[in-house]
Amino acid sequence: MEDLVALHHGALSVKIALKGAELVEFSIGREGLLWQPTGLFWNRTAPNLFPVVGRLMHDELVWKGERYPMSQHGFARDSQFKLVEEGANFLVLELCSNDVTRVQYPFEFSFKVKYQLLEDRVKITYSTTNLGNEMMPYSVGGHPGFALRGPLDEHELWFDVQVNTQRWLIEDGYYNGKTLKLNCGKALELNNEYFTTDAIVLRSPEFSTATLVHKTLGKLATVDCSSWDAVGFWTKPGAPFLCIEPWWGWADSQQNFGDFATKEALHWLEPEEEEALFYEIIVPANRLI
Question: What domains are defined for the chain?
Fold first, then answer.
């Protein structure tokens, strides 16, 4: 098993893999919020997405006429991070540009993931710094998978405001230019039909929290993010998890010709500029008792 680092605070604990800086466990006592891979459905738990979110056209990053291979969601989730800072209730892991990353992404950077345990939550902060001498475009996101308590249709998603928006439809990993009205109020009843093609993706979501709820057992976990550019909800039909994904960026559309400089929803950093973006996973009060 890859190297792990652990953190404890009150009743909460986390385990984080140095590979990908991935949160592999988040527990209250002995009860875990995250799903645990079994070899079926999906082999990850909560990967970090950088320097792209989603899939690029032809799985390539095109910059100044040069082509760089880039897999879906970027390389950070498969890269080895270093533990660079730790305190009583936090850890910071870092990935810096190197010979392996430059083949895929021609920029000099520092990408840090900070995990901080508070009384009822873990705060995940992505800090990205441009270490080069030109503007640096990037995207970043989270992908935590939460354990279901039975079939998917026994669950709902609750929002903090009324939801009246468009779902952006994905085909073969790319947006096909079509949208579907999603007018669910403050609760979306989940079922497998939503996920037969791909994730539910909402751009510029009007809500700040999404809570996974079991219809009988109550709230299971909340993702809180006030700054996301988009959010994805994803599972595979029959799988025992649901991902609530905070994104700062999204995949290419089928109309995109692959030039990274013109890609939608990128964040751009000046030389030596740093940007910090964060989201929180909150343990509902009923699970802390």
Answer: 4-288 (2.70.98.10)
